Amino acid sequence: MANSITVAGINAGYGQVHVLEDVSLTAGGGETVVLLGTNGNGKSTLMKSIMGIVQPSAGSIIAEIDGEKHNLVGMATEAIVDLGIALVPEGRRLFPRLTVEENLLLGGFRPKARAEIGNNLEFSYECFPRLAERKSQLAGSMSGGEQQMLALARALMLSPRILLIDEPSVGLAPVLVSRTIDKIKELKDRYSLTVLMAEQNFAQASRIADRGYVIVHGKIAFEGKSAHELNNNDLIRKLYMGL
Amino acid sequence: MPFDLLVSALVAGVLLGGFYAAVTVGISIAFGILDIVNIAHPAFIILGSYIAYILNAQFGIDPVIAGIIALPAFYVLGAAVYQVYYVSFEKRGKEALSGLAFFFGLLFITEVLLILQFGVDYRYVQAGYIDNNLGKFLGLSQSLPKLIAELPMRMLVPCVMSILMFGVLLIVIKRTFIGRAIMAVSQDALALQLMGADPVRIKRIAFAISIATAAMAGAFLIIIQPVEPSVGREYIGRVFAICVLGGMGSLTGTLIAAVLLGVAESLTATFYGPSWAPAVSFGLLLLTLAFRPSGIMGR
Question: Could you report the predicted ipTM of this complex, rounded to two decimals?
Fold first, then answer.
């Protein structure tokens, strides 16, 4: 069944500071949608608005999960998660003083995920053998790349229908960025997830994108309806390649 | 130094340490895991002692059973105290200093209410085993080794029950979803929300559990010694010392540290006189902070 998220005309910000202005976008039906933009253009604010961490002052955010529609505006973060929407937050936000396995098991907190926790854990270790080797190590003592893998695996422990990923490349060496992006693609295919990924590394993100948006100064400046359109437009050339 | 004296001081210390573990585990959860400086905890323990006293004096209920009966009420009390603390301080980010004052206030109010109700006389409980030793209690004085037969039931029962309670808490914290969420909540509340858990609810449950342990610890205390309302103050320094020595947030560390402190106090009391015992906890606390600030099991 179709799982989708539709953001329509939202404004959001922090106190007096307005960040997002009339932003609309949609992701659904098992596609990978990327939200491109350089630092400080509102990518994270948009992710936080969807998750109920930042409350939009206008507009609507509708999630359709297994045929049922929910308006996410005004809902508590944990209730949004409970619907089956997971966020891999910027900076990963692991529980540093818990072990790798404890972090993963916390991903299975949501009642629907508890039933599948055994399978999900097995799959996490199969997919990320490194995590299996380090399962009793404290999460905070791992390298950046391993932490990003753990953050991804932990989100998948939630058995999500829609996965939001905020800047998976932050703080990672180029080779790890490319590996992380490949992993996201693999997981997405395996779980038939709908993925919305915010990223500033255009070259890497566009490799797995079905389509995407470019956000500039809190507004959607360009919508690429296909990977081809995304790859061949002037704005992206200007922003990312300095042409 | 006579060997017998040393052994019996060690044994007495371990028994005392088991009891200290029950007294400290509540602080270990509230302060060590949740970062809530609940200095009123000893007052809740004394309240637990008085409830055990009332149930024992009025209905002849065994003090340990009385502690178990009081558990649900203390759980609810803990949840209510946390809710007040959360709405008044934590939500507004004022928990550091105002929260400390709040718990100081709770400490004094509880103490004064107990004095108004019961006066300052020492109260104690009665149970068949309290004045016995293990040998007499089991009727096996002749067949058990002397050291074991002479274990005082007054200390043995609280120690064993305390370790039992510890075991249950360890299982809850390490093996349940709520327990793992309790460990995680002070590390990153937002990340916990992203796992689908409400941090305020998790903290409320954890704090309620921490106060519930005071019902048991209070019952143990009044089995060990007669209690009057201000006895709790003697434990404030001790419990925080054990908590830090064990390592913030580690229940296993708390148990080890409690036994260490019990043994250290018992040895000091035996060989240098009981008046030195209180200095031991602060001495150990200073040494810990100087040489291993993260404690024995600190993560």
Answer: 0.93
